[in-house]
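This section describes the prediction task in plain terms. A model, or a person checking by hand, is given the sequence of a single protein chain and must write out its three-dimensional structure as a string of tokens. No templates, partner chains or ligands are provided. The sample shown here is typical of the held-out split.
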Amino acid sequence: MRVPTAIGILAALLLGNCGPATRSNLPQTPIDDSFFGTELKTAGVRTYVFAHRVHQQEGYVALCGAWASNRARGRPKLLMQGARVLIGEETIARSVDFYTRAEYNELNPPIGMASCARTETRWRPEFALLPLRFALSRTEFREPAWSRRKREEAAAREAAKAATE
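The expected answer:
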């Protein structure tokens, strides 16, 4: 697993200033079953978990999210400013600096409220079915077990629904 390097984080921050942006803050929302996750473990024992979801807001993609860590130290500012969020292969946000902090929960999504912002990406119906991904220069994020389990359950429900139609 790769850990962020100073050069990689600096490059991500410089590149993070171009492309899709988030704007028009929306009301916060509770983290519930509609959220999926992304996880990053650093070289030490620190784990960052990001919970997020997208929905349609006035014809655009709205992104809601929160972050949590198993360590009580400060906010992962460089990660938050440099991380890109993608739906499929399309970048919808070049920063998650607006995400709020939530309570860390090792086996389930973080507990608390998520902040939301409308992006400049136009909504497309297939976005509701595609997974969100995080990207940061030379850093590997993975989907935590609780999120993978939810995605598999959702796919099974959709398959069962399609079989009965």
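For orientation: The chain has three helices and nine strands.
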